[in-house]
Every structure is written in structure tokens, then in C-alpha cells.
Amino acid sequence: MAGGAESLRALLRAANALLQKRRYHAALAVIKGFRNGAVYGAKIRAPHALVMTFLFKSGSLREKLKSIAQATYAHSRNLAYFVFTYKGLLAAQSRLQGKKIPFHSFLAACIGGWLVFGDNNPINSQIIMYLLSRILFGLSRLAVEKGYIPQPKQDPFPLVAALVWGTVLWLFEYHRETLQPSLQSSMTYLYEDSEVWHDLSDFLIYNRRTDSK
Fold this sequence. Notes:
Layout: H1 2-19, H2 25-56, H3 61-97, H4 102-117, H5 122-146, H6 157-174, H7 181-192, H8 200-205
Helix pairs in contact: 2-3, 3-4
């Protein structure tokens, strides 16, 4: 028993010593990136899938739990693969050229995005749309910072909010099929289901009646 504990401590010391070696830093960063991608993907997707599934999806409890598990696994796996691919390609380019330049990041991410997120499915679609909105904000701020567009005299956010909500509700009312399915479900719940009721039960307590009255 004591010998086993000592062997384990020796193994831990060897592992910790390996982690401190700078020559392995790039390879170890790729492995930890895979780990962090998997964990973060699960943390982000699990609560979102839980809420959306129980709010909008029908089916048995088993089917709902299976759907949550599948969505969480897909998000976690894809993010882990992407981080692994991105950091691996970044390290390879830096090693080949002897230094890191900004284009390395762009090229590595483009390849990773194509390989990992290129499949047009609901999970990937949500991730890409999430990133796209932040890219537009980021590029706008960068354009002001670099002087490509003048600094606004007033905060433009109220105008952006008005245009975003005006456009999305117009699309929902007249071109609904162009919107992502989960957004359609959310807006149906908010703007259409609120138009229908029969008595106090489905006016205040439930969204829809479940009986045949």
C-alpha cells in the first residue's frame, strides 16, 4: 500500500516536472486548449439546452434529457476540436517562420472554422451567429479606434437597438422562415402565444391549455 502511494507521488512529481519544461510548452498548450474547449462548451451549452428544451420541446422526459445531452456533447466536442486545431496550427506556423505574426491567427482560425464548424447544423449555426454579432461590434470599435470612421458624437447604441429589433420583428412577421428555428420558437412564445387564451388557467398560469375544453 505504501509502495503504491510512493509510486503515485513519484509519477506526480515527474508529470509536474514535465509541465515546467519550456520546450514542451506549445504541445502542452494544445492539449490544455482541448481540455478547456471541452469544459467551456459543456458549461455554455448544458444550461442553454436545458432551458430551451423544457420551454419549447415536446416529448417524454427521457427524450428531452437525451436531446440536452446530445446538444451539450456536440458543443463541447466542437469547441474542443477547434481549440486543438487552432492552437496546433498556430504553433506549427510560429515554428516554421520562427516568430508569431497576426496572419497566423487568422489562417489557423479559418482552417479550424472550416474543418470543425463548416457543417451547417443548429449547434454550429448558433455559435456562428453569436460570434458574428460580436465581430460586427468589434470591427466597428476598431474602425473608430484606427480613425477609419469618426468618433460618434452621441452613443449609437440606441439606434442599433432600434434597427435590430425593428428588423428581426419584421422578419418574424413576414419572412419567418429566414430566422433560426430556436429564435422562431422564442418569438412565437412571446408574440403569438400571448394572443391566445381561453380562461384564467392559460392566461396567467400556463401558456397553452393541455385539456380538450
